[in-house]
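Zn-dependent hydrolase
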Amino acid sequence: MAAPAQNLRINSDRLWDSLMEMAKIGPGVAGGNNRQTLTDEDGEGRALFQKWCEEAGCTMGLDQMGNMFARREGTDPEALPVYVGSHLDTQPTGGKYDGVLGVLGGLEIIRTLNDLNIKTKHPIVVTNWTNEEGTRFAPAMLASGVFAGMHTQDWAYDREDAEGKKFGDELQRIGWRGEEEVGARKMHAFFELHIEQGPILEAEGKDIGVVTHGQGLSWTQVTITGKDAHTGSTPMPMRRNAGLGMARVLEKVDEIAWSHAPHAVGAAGHIDVYPNSRNVIPGKVVFTVDFRSPELSVIEDMENRLRVEGQKIADAMGLEIEFEKVGGFDPVKFDEGCVEAVRRAAERLGYSHRDIISGAGHDACWINRVAPTAMVMCPCVDGLSHNEAEEISKDWAAAGADVLFHAVVETAEIVE
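Predicted structure tokens:
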């Protein structure tokens, strides 16, 4: 495969201007964005993306999950396309770059190829995956999951938001339900550019993260039941304090994750306390433990130890404890050939880089099941994401998009 010349770069000013223009749609209250999936704002962002793609000469495809596919033709009608993209939806208090950089970085590849009149053997398709965030309709990465055969379309359509509105109905309402069968497309490869959403690259002064693996995830819902009672009149020896039981279990969660450092992590991200009154001893708590690791055996060990240690604590305190696995997915090992294309691109361009494991879930993690896949990461300030204060530099965005351009175009094969 012919690699792009070393001096080829994307137009960093145009990419940055596009990011800022998209950020005007669904502005947040603190400088970020609230463009949740299948809202009117999501529809407006999609329309702007489609407009830009059509101006760049692409044809737009739309499947029954609302996934968008902007295609630039290749010279070989038999060659499978190289796909690139991410997502345009955001958290309710999201940043301007999470997902969006990957979509608009893909569009910038098309624009740059047009500027330079470069043709590729394989078509290149820029993708916007629907509902990556999962904040309105759980779970995350919903539409890419249907595409990869992880969920059925009917099940996805039945997902409800907090107001009881169904995914399928809202997709139809905003006018972005296509006719194309989901998952019918075949890919030569898929690449996704994303901000790191963690502090490693910035702390080490690296321009690029070459993503080799995606962490697996396990969500376990834990319910501890004691007895709610008056905080003032119940003697200490006679209390069955579910809140205290939770505190001791959470110490074990931290201890378990540390025992598999540096790559494993664990925390409780959702906690409900009952009756949640300032003068009542908690009689029941429900919380979700999130364990992640790039190794399935480590995830399984952490899950098992949570159950064993949690049961010991409950027995010692006269409490009842229940465990229910409510979600998760296996670790991902990205395609070695695609990963090497990203690594070569970073080296060709002179960007400092390191191999990295993605701690967050991404659409690429599902697509890796049906096509050779790799990811490019760039730093973000203080590792902050899923926050309106999320920030990156223009140079970081350009570096990530440059590497994405070279990896994608090398894989799509320049026609001399």
